[in-house]
Amino acid sequence: EVHQMPLRKLEKHYVKRLRTNGEGCEDYGGIFSTSSKETYEKDPLNLQDMRRDQVHVAETVVTVLVKDINDNAPVFPNTTMYGEVQENGPIDLSVGVVWAWDADDEQEGTNARLTYSIDKNVIEELSGRPIFTVDPLSGLIRTAICCLDRETTPEYHIQVVAHDGGGLKGTCTVVVRLADVNDNSPRLTR
């Protein structure tokens, strides 16, 4: 702080400076005349130090936006999910819906955009065709062939994969159970 005080018609200043550690003011040692050559010659270092040690401080708020990268793979809530379908039903019966989630930011890029596929499907022996399909966007599993027989195979195991837009994937096993219908007549043993 510089307080001007008129003394003997000369412009003189009483000088204080803020300490460098921020703890109050330090007396700079008296009265200096800025218009007199004699003051500068008496104590030139104090005046030079005072000019050099003045610090100005400004503050602002900085907001840091963290950019999302694809560092999270899709995760299914359970490693095993269950579905059910009636035996002897037509093609395109709904078995169940699988779903996964991705911790990456949905609003930024495709890192959290999921698509579904069947990695390990069951193949029908007669036709060589896969028995189940999955909708890539909804995760709805359906039958791809008709007439599944519970008495021959009561349940099927398939592996569904969820892929995110950045190439990471998660898997789960879907157990498809066949619901029994009354499609067999009684037979006599003899």
From TrEMBL:
GO terms for cellular component: catenin complex. CDD domains: Cadherin_repeat (cd11304). GO terms for biological process: cell migration; homophilic cell adhesion via plasma membrane adhesion molecules; neuron projection development. Residues 77-188 form the Cadherin domain. Keywords: Calcium, Membrane, Repeat. PROSITE patterns: CADHERIN_1, CADHERIN_2. Its main location: membrane. It is found in: Membrane. GO terms for molecular function: beta-catenin binding; cadherin binding; calcium ion binding. Pfam families: Cadherin (PF00028). This is Cadherin domain-containing protein. It comes from Cherax quadricarinatus (Australian red claw crayfish).
